[in-house]
Amino acid sequence: MNVGLFGGTFNPIHCGHLRSAEEICSAFALDRIYFIPSASPPHKQHDDIAPVLHRYKMVELAVADNPAFVASRIEIERSGPSYSVDTIRTFGAGLKSTSIAFIIGMDAFCEMHIWREYREIPRLCDLIVTSRPGFPTPAIEDLLPVALRSAFWYDSPKHRYQHDSGHTLTLYTLNGLHISASAVRENIQLGQSLHRQIPPAVSAYIAEHGLYTKREDIC
Predict the structure, then answer these.
(1) 2-179: CATH number
(2) Segment-wise mean pLDDT, segments of 10 residues, the chain, 219 residues
């Protein structure tokens, strides 16, 4: 089985997340993608993030209609900061003989060198680095942060990097919707339409629980 791990704050999950995951699922022949809301993101401010149980429930509602998508509670159930390396190790231990790909946006990948045990991550799984709206995408030959270059070599015929562990790193340019969670939160604050930005079930959940209605909820 080929699975993808799609982590993030999902604050809130929106149609751009879902469309991107659908593209990646098809392009990389993944059997399943796990959406993993971060309980305590170590590199983000906490005062503008909705409580994790709300964010998890919104993810659960958003993926309910797609059998290839699964909402994961792994970072909710584990205490402490939500370090990606710990999440990947847990999936690797629980999904024996499964190929795992960690899906990461370009903006986050460019900061990967400040993550906990960042050098171990490409030893544990493949990496799929996706383009992000508004964030420059370098040529694939220049993709790697300096801190990771010594462990990879570029496979020109396959247009991807090969790690010395045997895992790969692939840059994937998304054709997905250009939607941001911050714009969704701003629209909620302003009382504007969320049509085609977030799934109706998520919109109803936000309204029911009064999420993102305060100015301090907007980053």
Answers:
(1) 3.40.50.620
(2) 95 95 97 94 70 97 98 93 93 88 92 92 96 76 84 92 96 84 93 93 96 63
CA distances from 173 to 43, 47, 139 (A): 25, 31, 11
Q: What is the pTM of this model?
A: 0.91
